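User:
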Amino acid sequence: MGQVRRRLKLLSYNIQAGTTTGRYREYLTSSWRQVLPNNQRMANLDSIAELVADYDIVALQEVDCGSLRSGFLNQAKYLATHAAFPHWSHQGNRKVGMIAHAGNGLLSKIKPSLIEEHKLPGAIPGRGAMVVRYGEGDQALWLVVLHLALGRRARAQQLAYVAGLISDYPHVVVMGDLNTGPNSRELLDFCDRAGLLLPSRDLLTFPSWDPQRAIDHILVSPKMDIADLQVLPVAFSDHRPLAMTVNFNVMVDLPDHPEGDQDQHQPE
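Assistant: Predicted structure:
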């Protein structure tokens, strides 16, 4: 255990439960793919696993935690296994009987020291946040995985709740599908309350086939040293992934080649 200057590669990706969408009408004409298992979903997951394997920490949204549509496969575990991440976790949020079980996921090559699951406020339940700590004390890195509501009022409530969780920490990264643009009132208020910055306002991620909206974001504390931030040009989902490289002093044990069995970190 010691302080290491490390370049961390981060990725945030709404994977739409492994389903590809190529145009708006497919939300209707191919809606069966949202409730039934299919070969395309598995091919997409394999492609996503190949993509994410190059990153240190991956925040997933709309990952299926094991239901009919995924063939009762925990997609976070599948991706961790096939992309060789030694640590992974998931947070099941919205469950529709046995048909669908959507949630957030975390894939990590660094062992978290803490993972908390939080249910977010809102008139319609089913949104959550994963709060992850790497390291200890003032040098710890706090990571939040989010997937916010579609309605502005609910988003404002959810962001206010998250701001209350993280506003005292000096090193924070918030990653996810926030379902709102960079200039929205609720997102600007959140940045003020949480003491975070939005490094770029023109990274279009949705829809994946012709990106027009910046609704996926990575927010950081002001002193974070950002080396790179970009949207990746892939269309395995209806969102494109957002990738950031950041230089950070990490107070954790960071082996160059992790060994041992895979670990699902249990929430505390």
